[in-house]
Amino acid sequence: MIEVNNLVKRYGDHTAVDHLSFKIEKGKIYGFLGPNGAGKSTTMNMITGYIASTEGTVKIDGHDILEEPEAAKKCIGYLPEQPPLYFDMTVLEYMKFVADLKKIPKDKRTSMIEEVMDMVKITDMKNRLIKNLSKGYRQRVGLAQAIMGYPEIIILDEPTVGLDPKQIIEIRSLIKSLKEKHTVILSSHILSEVSAVCDYVLIISHGKLVASDTPDNLGKLAQGSNTLEMLIKGEKDTIVQGLQSVEGIGDVTVEYNKDQDLWETKVTSEEQTDVREKVFYKMAELNCPIYEMKSKKISLEEIFIELTDSENNNAIDSENNNAIESENENEGGDKS
């Protein structure tokens, strides 16, 4: 659905997006992650044709966004971080205006407006002026304009900003339902949101793609993704040497817990390797009883920090070309 090739955006001497390439497949929800200033919003703005790239190309369903802008933009519904609202309009007036802009057939316009307003739960607000709505409801109106016309691709930049917890749950559920008929690209700083909603996660740092995979598989790109934490009784050297002899175990760290008279032990193992049974039998063989054992699954937050750490970026193999990136860390600069 989307092909980005060698995309670059410069503002003077600053490079916001640095030779970015990726593809977006149909029928999935993609999560777009990166630190502030990483290039997320800038990339989204270039994909939608809101700003032009310095170099590279963007194709939407085969249409170049610069050479065939009208055909490309017909495929896209876009919610920027700041929703494009007219505050002196009522919600219903604004939705009619959006339907007109998107050239929705007149015989379908009324029913589609009602459907979309119902989807995002703003029907009760249809006669309210937008300027009198809370930030959360303004966000919902912005989401409604993105969905209007049911475009094949829906791009959402921080869609749950300003919503209360109940509204966030409702919008997340709505976003999940959208993938039945749409391809969704979601930019968010809420990592738990990306884990809960997205099928695929794309992480960028300094305008470059550093990782792209499913949330579950991203742990493979992070060091020490499999960690086993234990409380063990016995001699320290015996415990350490015994664990180091177990096939598949990497690092072993041991620290004495004086209150419990036990050794707090952590071991890391190779990717996709479960060493719990081997560890149990080895400690039993050495007469070192295990009082507690738990596997620690690396969180998306930890993965995010590790992959966007400038010291680690060069160590990440970014051969996955299925990604998404962009962020407006620009104040001023030539946007043409």
Task: Summarize the structure in words.
The chain has helices at 40-47, 69-73, 91-101, 106-119, 135-147, 165-178, 191-197, 236-244, 276-285, 300-308, 310-313, and strands at residues 2-11, 14-24, 29-33, 55-60, 63-64, 76-79, 153-157, 183-187, 200-205, 208-213, 226-232, 249-257, 262-269, 290-297. It is α/β, with parallel strands linked by helices and 336 residues long. The strands form 3 sheets. The protein has a 6-stranded mixed β-sheet with strand order 6-7-8-3-9-10, with helices on both faces. The chain has a 4-stranded antiparallel β-sheet with strand order 2-1-4-5. The longest helix is centred in the middle third of the chain and has 14 residues, at 106-119. Residues 311-336 have low confidence and may be disordered.
Which key features would you list for this structure?
6-stranded mixed β-sheet, 11 helices, 27% strand, 336 residues, elongated
Strand content: 25-35%
Radius of gyration: 25 Å
Spatial gap, N to C terminus: 25 Å
- Which stretches of 5+ consecutive residues score pLDDT under 50? 311-336
Main beta sheet strand tally, sense and closure:
6 strands, mixed
Short description:
The chain contains 11 helices and 14 strands. It is elongated.
